[in-house]
Design a protein that fits this description.
Residues 110-243 form the Integrase core domain. The chain is 51% helix and 10% strand. It is α/β, with parallel strands linked by helices. β2 (130-136) and β3 (142-148) form a beta hairpin.
Amino acid sequence: MEFFYRDIVKILQMNHAISISLRQVKRYLKEMNLARRKDYSNIRSVFNFVHTQVTSYGPAHGYRWMYQKCKRHGFKIKRDHISLMLNTIDPEGVYLRARRRLKRREYFSRGPNFCWHLDSYDKLKRYGLCINACIDGFSRKIIWLKVGRSSSNPKVIARYFIDAIEEHRGHPYSMRGDMGTENGLVAVMQTLFAGDEVTIPFIYGKSTMNTRIESWWGILRKKCCQVWISAMKGLQERGQFSGDKLDINLIQFCCMQLLQVPFFSICRNILPSNMSSWQ
């Protein structure tokens, strides 16, 4: 077991009635050739790990983040050594990070309704409030933003899609979503609507790569959802929400419409001209 130096001082004083200063503890440990941080990992193994991470993720990780990654993977090494490795492996990335000039990926869309991005927001799902949204990639217009009893049922998401097509009097050229089963019917309908003219009518990918809708979730949490997340956590901490079916049904009955009202307001007030920070 590893103790901090201050912990050693307190343990000696409380358990053994030995009063000793922090400086004395450090001196005694040094004389006995003892240290809290020893047995560092093999440098070559750590270097290979860092090289793999840089190759996989590019210059996005600084030495602090890479140091934490090494710790999580069981490597024991000094942070200065990580910095030196990054300077050797990726000097250009280190230079760009120092100047805050990292080149971010750019999003491109040919025009309105070229690609709709859809996804589900699960921060309130445990309380029975299941949120699903779709956004136009070019104009960043909110196509739909709905809260319901389920965001995993393909029929529910398909209903949102059909309502949006009726409202906008047309369908998008393509759509993007994750591999979840809830998008199955939407993908089938979009494929039928697009016909043979579109090579890939529905693009599957990870949610983290669905940049337009992921950016929107950050905006939604700041504008609305954080208050609800805090309120629901408060109910749970006070023992007023146990997570059983009855509690979930009560939350849905009392709060679903209350949450949908600010969603309508957000969709009207947050226009593309007000979202330049998304770029």
